[in-house]
Design goal:
It contains six helices and seven strands, in the order βαβααβββαβααβ. The chain has 173 residues and is of the alpha/beta class. The chain has a single domain, classed as Rossmann fold. The longest helix has 25 residues.
């Protein structure tokens, strides 16, 4: 759209997708050659189990950009087709090129990566949700700072497993 033309830095584009949106993002990042967009510098995937289900290993290996891959600890054992979310992640993540980051967020479910996916009926639950969203935002921002803007100021976040993460695998280069 022309009204945004002066506000978009074409050399600093990142994409993100939740759930099946992760599948779409993957296509733009190389898994679907005719959909590949070379302007994309980084991708953030939130609960993208469809990447493992719908792309084969050669398509996943065709992915070309730095990627941050999140799953929720509470969705790890949920089935999607014949495999669990954790199993799809274990198949998908190794196929990604470096730099790549895998984060499993403690207490998060599939909907925890959206604004209304968690139960906030009590103050304690609301605080836990806010803490999870803060954690997700901190890691996402540090990743984008590093791999889109080229700033290394938050690299320590990317190399650290914070409370609230079940696991954090960071393979920067």
């Amino acid at each position: 759209m022309p009204r945004f033309a002066g506000h978009i830095a074409a050399d600093k584009i990142a994409v993100g997708g939740h759930s099946f949106g992760g599948y779409s993002v993957f296509g733009f990042c190389g898994a679907i050659p005719e959909r590949y967009d070379a302007r994309i510098k980084a991708a953030v995937l939130y609960s993208p189990s469809s990447v493992g289900l719908l792309y084969d290993s050669s398509e996943r290996r065709a992915h070309r950009v730095p990627t941050m891959y999140f799953i929720g600890g509470d969705e790890r054992d949920n089935f999607l087709g014949a495999h669990t979310v954790g199993e799809w992640a274990a198949v998908s993540y190794p196929d990604l090129p470096r730099p790549k980051y895998f984060l499993e967020v403690e207490g998060a479910g599939h909907g925890s990566f959206t604004s209304d996916g968690d139960d906030v009926r009590t103050p304690d639950r609301a605080r836990a949700v806010a803490d999870r969203h803060d954690l997700i935002a901190r890691y996402t921002a540090a990743f984008l700072e590093r791999h889109v803007l080229g700033r290394s100021t938050d690299d320590a976040i990317l190399a650290t497993t914070s409370p609230g993460l079940v696991q954090c695998r960071c393979e920067p280069f």
